[in-house]
Amino acid sequence: MSNLHLVEHPLIAHKLTLLRDKTTGVKEFREAISELAMLLCYEATRDLPLKEVEVQTPMAVTRSRVISGKKLALVPILRAGIGMVDGILSLVPAAKVGHIGVYRDHETVLPVEYYCKLPEDIADREVIVLDPMLATGGTAVAAIRMIRERGVRHIKLMNIIAAPEGVRAMQEAFPDVEIYCAALDERLDENAYIIPGLGDAGDRLFGTK
Ligand code: URA
């Protein structure tokens, strides 16, 4: 699974356990999703280009580096992806944010697109698509297809938990899209929920069940 970056870190492992625990309440769940997104962002932005600038410290003039060129856009997939936005914006506050609405039809388990609002200059940006759960991959593939249609060349996908089925679907559809996630779980159940997973990420984020 060559384009899959399984990010390992004690903080990530700890916060992931909090998410998995069914007794974790909405507030703690929301905070852990946001913090995990921030930690994954650290890894997903490792290849951002830098340029040297001159800076005056209180002691001397020196050369130091700042991020150059590439501008970021975050595209959370509604609705659970929204929970990942704030954590990433705390590291890259200038990123623009688009939204894509794709839901999984409970009968067919197929993705249905219902909303797409992206920054006008998205084709000039590096895009990180956000969805806590990569289950069948149908939703991520549909969202990335919509973004590609706007001329975006550089896309990354960030998930908290992925299933092997979803990673395979992504690799078949978009072998060039790098996937960043905190865990690769065992499998999907008959309703396409990730096992062991964490349940329904949207419901747990927004307290709708
Ligand atoms: N979406 C979720 O929220 N949870 C899953 O396990 C799979 C898809």
What does this structure look like?
The protein has 209 residues and is an alpha/beta fold. Strands 1, 4, 5, 6, 7, 8, 10 and 12 form an eight-stranded mixed β-sheet that branches. A three-stranded parallel β-sheet has the order 9-11-13. Strands 2-3 form a two-stranded antiparallel sheet. The protein has helices at 10-20, 26-44, 85-89, 138-148, 164-173, 201-206; strands at residues 4-6, 50-56, 61-67, 71-78, 96-97, 99-104, 111-117, 125-130, 133-134, 155-158, 161-162, 178-181, 183-184, 187-188, 194-195. Helix content is 30%, strand content 31%. The protein contains six helices and 15 strands. The structure holds uracil. Residues 80, 133, 135, 193-194, 197, 200-202 line the site of uracil.
Please report which band the strand proportion falls in: under 5%, 5-15%, 15-25%, 25-35%, 35-45% or over 45%.
25-35%
The major β-sheet equals: 8 strands, mixed
CA gyration radius, whole angstroms: 18 Å
Order of helices and strands: EHHEEEHEEEEEHEEHEEEEH
**Proportion in helices:** 25-40%
Report mean pLDDT, rounded to a whole number. Answer: 95
| Gross geometry | globular
Name every ligand kind in the structure.
uracil
Output the structural class.
Answer: alpha/beta
Low-pLDDT parts are none
Oligomer: single chain
What is the number of beta strands?
A: 15
